[in-house]
Amino acid sequence: MSESDRSATTSVECISAELATPMLSCSDPTRRALLLTALATGAYMASSRSAAAAAADEDQPGSDERPQKADVLVFSEGEHAGEVIKPQDLKLGGPPVQAWPRDSKTSVVRKGSRLNEVLVVRLDPAELDDETRSRAADGIVAYSAICSYAGCPVTGWLKGAAGDNDVFKCFCHNSEFDPRHSAEVVFGPALRRLAALPLTTAGGSLTVAATFVGKVGQQAG
Predict the structure, then answer these.
(1) CA 201 to chain centroid
(2) CA-CA distance, 128 to 198, in Å (whole number)?
(3) Which residues in the chain land under pLDDT 70?
(4) What does pLDDT average to over the chain?
(5) What distance in Å separates the CA atoms of residue 87 and residue 120, rounded to the nearest whole number?
(6) What is the pLDDT of residues 63-106, one digit of tens each?
(7) Please, are residues 176 and 125 in contact by the beta-carbon 8 Å criterion?
(8) Best exposed site among 55, 99, 166, 176 by fewest CB in 10 Å?
(9) How far apart (Å, rounded) are the C-alpha atoms in residues 142 and 154?
């Protein structure tokens, strides 16, 4: 922490303590206004530093590059965000989790582009067709989280309109994709399946086995 950061933190702590203590001086409206202004300034500085740190993290070299072979998958949201995903973290039959690839050499998380986010779900290997099984890790499959129709995020996991199994669903235009069959379109206006990300396991972690199969993002036209 820099000297200015330490000063700002110390000032905020002192001011907070003073405001919490029933001192006679705090009954002075002018003094109280000054203290509150200083406290707000300190909070703003802390918030700005956090935002700058997050931006710097996303600007690291390689953060916007597409997933590469040997990248590991990490949670992209929730209380475990940034942690490596292990097979046992995934419940058989879903729901899927959202993930970023992380460079295994530099530890840079490739979250500089929304096109790098993937959906990871654990399914019964017996339910997968041959093509899908060849890209799976013990029934665990990964696909782009970006709909191939208009580029919206795919966030749904529910019973499909044309079957009994849960499928991925994009609520923007109601396109549905079956992860058991290479995320092919089973309902809605999308014309192209979701790009697949081949997986394997290494050291107890989910690891990228090859680059995306298929185009990531919305269809042309």
Answers:
(1) 20
(2) 14
(3) 1-58, 219-221
(4) 82
(5) 10
(6) 999 999 999 999 999 999 999 999 999 999 999 999 999 999 99
(7) no
(8) 55
(9) 13
Integer Rg of the chain from CA: 24
143's tokens: 């696909």
Q: What pTM did the predictor assign?
A: 0.74
Q: How far apart are CA 118 and CA 95, in angstroms?
A: 13
